[in-house]
Amino acid sequence: RHRTILIASGALLLSGVAQAQIDEIIVTANKREQTLQEVPIAVSVVSAETIERDHIVDLFDIQSVVPSFEARQYQTSANATFFIRGFGNGSNNPGVEPSVSVYIDGVYRSRMQGQMSDLPNIERVEILRGPQNTIFGKNASAGVVNIVTKKASLEPEGMLKADIGNYNGRKLQGYFSGPINDSTAFSLSATKNERDGYTKTSIAGNTDINNIDRESIRGEIFSQINDSLEMRLIADYDKVDEVCCTVGNLVPGPLFPAIQALGGTQVPGDPYTYTFSPNFDPRTKADNKGWSLNVEADLGFASLSITTADRTSNTVTDADVDFDSTMLLDRDPNSLDLSGFSQEIRLSSNGDDQMKWQVGAFYQQEDLYHKNSLKFGPGFRAFGEALAQAPGAFGALEIAIGLPSGTIFAQGQGTNDQFTQDNKSLSLFGEVEMMMTEKLTATVGLSYFEDKKTVTYTQSNDDIFSNLDLYGILVGGGLMAGLTPEQAAAAAARAR
């Protein structure tokens, strides 16, 4: 903005008649239409023109044009999260909601797998920095990513676009909008987005990793019922099927020599490696679908907005969680099923520039089911003996206590976890803006949150070694014979 003003000022000096022109950017960061200069919070706007010019494919690419916004990718496509001003939280715990909230057309998307869809008709993306709990219905302690798509148009319009890029990238987008009658319009959009991976695996057939394979379809009906009432109904479906993600070592830890001794091929200290060595392709499959209904009514003194949404999401991730070629752990896909209903009611004042206010309520009910397992692979027994620097120790222990040979740390033993979480959330919020002078505005906001979570957790563990009474075996079973008192005391302490 400063650069534009300086150039315009130079033109004034030369011609004496030119006038500076600054395009107005309309945003809804305060849940009301305002120019970007009027919004009293820190917000960055990425316009449709910027998205087109910079070839921004998804939310991860937004960080290239918004300095304080960071997207972090973890071990699968669905394990990622966003940070604003360095604040955020990880996504490896499916029961934890992110502190950077993502909204698409006023609908809260609580998990990463529901945030990856390609939207071909984006109008703008707003990045709001800092806590937003008195404006948005769901608490967002670090900030908000607010995505606004273009409404269906009564004037016929359409777009068909094909992009090609490196790594065999190809993206096809289609969008069409037109009238149903004098007051109602529809739109339909679809995308197909593919790109080969830019890293390689040296074990599983030299497969590409970190690829893109996504497709989506979205339909909308928009109706201007009368001068004071409009409705917007949206339904969408998208799916992801990707091989992701390459993992590099920042620092080779103390266990790395043992892994290398067993044939590990991972690069010891290069977090930016373009070679990965999993035992199989780490794949993420996700599908999301849902609908939302937004009703806007002008009541004269205020505007009423009601947004209702229902969404479901199903994800299966199959990652090599020992992140190397040694097959320490078995292949154990895990799943995450998510379904949720939400409704927001908001009342915003009209017409008074001296004092603006808004009050609202947000309710969400969300059900989550997560299934996960962690099993020993064929290399774990040798790995344990390598760490203990005692080859054959487990075989000797099996003979001493009468277990069949190969029982301890046998392939397939481990844990099975099932986790459910039913979450009911209610928030009441309000905000008042008072113009003290032409250059000073005071903002006061209040919010009340109530979260009720019902959690169940079931785990089964068939690991033979973890169920042994090692202290009783060592002390009561006489296996400490021949040890010095110091060695016996140390062994007993470790066995407790």
What is the secondary structure topology, with strand pairs?
Layout (H helix, E strand, L loop, with lengths): L1 H14 L10 E2 L6 E2 L7 E5 H6 L15 E5 L6 E5 L15 E5 L2 E3 L12 E8 L13 E7 L7 E9 L3 E11 L4 E12 L3 E3 L6 E2 L2 E15 L2 E15 L12 H6 L13 E2 L6 E16 L3 E17 L15 E16 L5 E21 L4 H9 L4 H9 L12 E24 L2 E22 L8 H7 L8 H11 L1
Parallel strand pairs: 6-9, 13-17
Antiparallel strand pairs: 1-2, 3-8, 4-5, 6-7, 8-9, 10-11, 11-12, 12-15, 13-14, 15-16, 16-18, 18-19, 19-20, 20-21, 21-22, 22-23
What can you tell me about this protein's structure?
By secondary structure, the chain is mostly beta strands. The chain is built from 7 helices and 23 strands. It has helices spanning 2-15, 48-53, 256-261, 380-388, 393-401, 470-476, 485-495, and strands at 26-27, 34-35, 43-47, 69-73, 80-84, 100-104, 107-109, 122-129, 143-149, 157-165, 169-179, 184-195, 199-201, 208-209, 212-226, 229-243, 275-276, 283-298, 302-318, 334-349, 355-375, 414-437, 440-461. The strands form 5 sheets. Strands 10-11-12-15-16-18-19-20-21-22-23 form an 11-stranded antiparallel β-sheet, with no helix packed on it. A 5-stranded mixed β-sheet has the order 3-8-9-6-7. A 3-stranded mixed β-sheet has the order 14-13-17, with no helix packed on it. α6 (470-476) packs antiparallel against α7. The longest helix is centred in the first third of the chain and has 14 residues, at 2-15. The chain is elongated. Residues 1-22 have low confidence and may be disordered.
